[in-house]
Amino acid sequence: MNEITIDMPAMFSVEEASAFRDTVKTYISSGQTSFVLDFKNCTFIDSTGLGVIVSLYKKCAENGGTIRLRSLHPNVYKIFELTRLTNVFEII
């Protein structure tokens, strides 16, 4: 499985979500369906950011792919935990 690693922005909110969505959709349209989202620099995520990631997860899963999360900051991990998305995503 070829995975593409994407570095997440420091603040993943509504302002960054559109550009991120477009980037990943470009990869998906070219046949790529497996991603590692690297959160090493990301200390904040809002509901829009979560929504974009969940939407892309569904798209990848429909095509046999995956989205894995790496290096979640404790603040970001807490959001994933509160929304129970830790049960959906593989966190590495």
UniProtKB/TrEMBL annotation:
Q: Which PROSITE patterns match?
A: STAS
Return the InterPro entries for the record.
Anti-sigma_ant, STAS_dom, STAS_dom_sf
Q: Which residues form the STAS domain?
A: 1-92
The protein's GO terms of the molecular function aspect are: anti-sigma factor antagonist activity
What Gene3D superfamilies does the record tag this protein with?
STAS domain
PANTHER family given in the database record: ANTI-SIGMA FACTOR ANTAGONIST TM_1081-RELATED, ANTI-SIGMA FACTOR ANTAGONIST TM_1081-RELATED-RELATED
Family statement drawn from the similarity comment of this UniProt entry? Belongs to the anti-sigma-factor antagonist family.
| Listed name of the protein | Anti-sigma factor antagonist
